[in-house]
Design brief:
This protein is mainly alpha-helical and 160 residues long.
């Protein structure tokens, strides 16, 4: 009895058809999956934007309340109602009283202390400090250069 071939011509054609179908459908399937991922990312972004809009609407409604505006002016700008005496408490020890840190973290703690001291100062102090810093950094003015001679409108008399 003769041995039967492992792959018949029908099986070979069937394998070729299946491989071609896989090859044909691979790219559209990959595109479909990537587009679904992009759609879900855009939906998440839209949800985040909606949440931001809702928060901004709540903030806008809060700023429409005159009492909230007064409270913010008092807290942020150190304003006071006429007749009140505003006080600002200052730590007598200042930022130098903070405990010392190891050498590696000294610069980070100094930056943090400077940032905390800057945040504690009123807004107008920051503006004035920046004006002082700009004045101190002003370059020395150079001597004025003489203008080149011009024949137009020359006031000197000429001999003709």
């Amino acid at each position: 009895m003769a041995a039967r071939p492992r792959f018949t011509s029908r099986a070979t054609v069937l394998v070729l058809v299946l491989c071609s179908l896989v090859a044909i459908l691979a790219y559209p399937t990959r595109q479909f999956i990537s587009q679904r991922a992009e759609i879900s990312a855009q939906r998440a972004k839209a949800d985040h934007s909606r949440q931001q809009v809702d928060q901004l609407r709540r903030d806008k409604a809060r700023w429409q309340d005159p009492e909230y505006v007064k409270a913010q002016a008092r807290a942020r700008l150190h304003y006071a109602v006429p007749g009140e005496t505003p006080y600002i408490a200052v730590d007598p020890a200042g930022p130098a009283a903070q405990p010392s840190a190891p050498a590696g973290t000294a610069s980070r703690s100094a930056d943090a202390a400077a940032g905390a001291a800057k945040a504690a100062k009123p807004w107008y102090t920051s503006i004035w400090d920046s004006v002082d810093a700009a004045d101190a950094a002003a370059p020395v003015a150079a001597a004025p250069r003489p203008l080149p001679p011009s024949s137009v409108g020359d006031p000197t008399p000429h001999d003709h």
